[in-house]
Amino acid sequence: MDCTGLCEVIAQSGLDVGLAQFLSLLLAVVAVSGVPLVTVIFLIWVERKIAARIQDRIGPNRVGPFGLVQTFADLLKLLVKEDITPTAADRLLYNVAPLISFASVALIWAIVPYTPYHFGADLEIGALYFVAVASLGTLAIMTAGWASNNKYALLGAFRVVALLVSYEIPLVFALMVPVLLAGSMSMLDIVYAQGGMWFVFMSPLAMLLFFISSQAETGRAPFDLIEAESELVAGFNIEYSGMKFGMFFAAEFLHVFTNGVLIAVLFMGGWFFPGWQEPLIAFFWLGVKASLVYFVSLWIRNTVPRFRIDQVMKFNWFFLVPISIVNVLVLSFLVMVLKEIGLVPLDEAGNMALQTGTFVEMLPMTIVLLLSNVLICIPIINRLRRSGNESRAELEARAASRAVAGATGD
After folding, report:
1. Is 95 exposed, middle or buried (0-12, 13-18, 19+ CB in 10 A)?
2. Which residues, 6+ apart, have CB-to-CB distance to 189 below 8 Å?
3. How many domains in the chain?
4. pTM
5. Where are the transmembrane segments (predicted)?
6. Of 80, 105, 132, which closes a domain?
7. Residue 62 and which of 200, 242, 273, 403 are 20 to 30 A apart at CA?
8. What is the pLDDT of residues 193-211, one digit of tens each?
């Protein structure tokens, strides 16, 4: 391993090169993991404020200016609360589950390219790494539900298994779209491939599928069946208290924003903005794009009611999975056709190379792929309209029947 950058600076102070490499790696890990830790404190305040505005409330406004210190007050409260472990619980798994839950989200940030020059690790299997690490969060919830020795917690864990098996499929198929277009699973390569055109303009359907699937895997409304207060009291975390509950709480808040960051990286060009490649500006643009997706997520959470378990399953297997498969097949076919007729930027070896394509060169490919998404969506929208009309007619018929029964005294 070469000793460059921070390692070189440390080595110049007289330390051994090996020790300098270790210290530089340690500082890099602390810096990368520190970003999500600091971010989650701010996100809790932001989410409370936005939820309050949507519900016509003020939100936190007592502790500190604009309620900014409220999160720290809550953190202190969780730290001093009694730590309870049920007598019949599996103590090891019960105590390890909150740590795995938060670590699974923090580890995703290791592959996020913050700027062209700042990223934790440029893995060649970055997309696969994300899928694997994100699954650890689901495993933590399953472990918590089983180890708590509580029927409500176990039911919450069962629902997590159902959601994971169901929504992992459209999520992976949606993730294949940027991987196919970029020709790489590296997050950095995917960002560079969007230098001429963001993937959201080529396949907005894939971004929508990824957003819905990630929202379901996070367990946020309208997919918050794993907690469902009216059915399971609090679901998998019913037996947790103090900082253990706080870690599940923080992991959920951070996971939602992490989804926003991933969508920004995979479909919205990441830190890339034409003509603006300075590190601070790049970091700012990534934050703006991720915050936009995060706001939409909060908007949905506070306005859409919770689905029933049968509705969630039906929505996935009869809607998301078929669309995601058709989308990948159609996109792959069109890309091959466009490549054969020369409407795709190619390198010297004849392989697709979007990294070298300009906006004008990418325009024909973008128009064709966007039209294919429109054609896929037209029958879907018509089917949804018919389904909505049928449901409305059924409800109106029931209401009319009840009105007649009431008038006749039956």
Report:
1. middle
2. 182, 183, 355
3. 2
4. 0.84
5. 22-46, 92-112, 127-148, 160-184, 190-212, 253-273, 279-296, 317-338, 358-381
6. 80
7. 242
8. 888 888 999 989 999 999 9
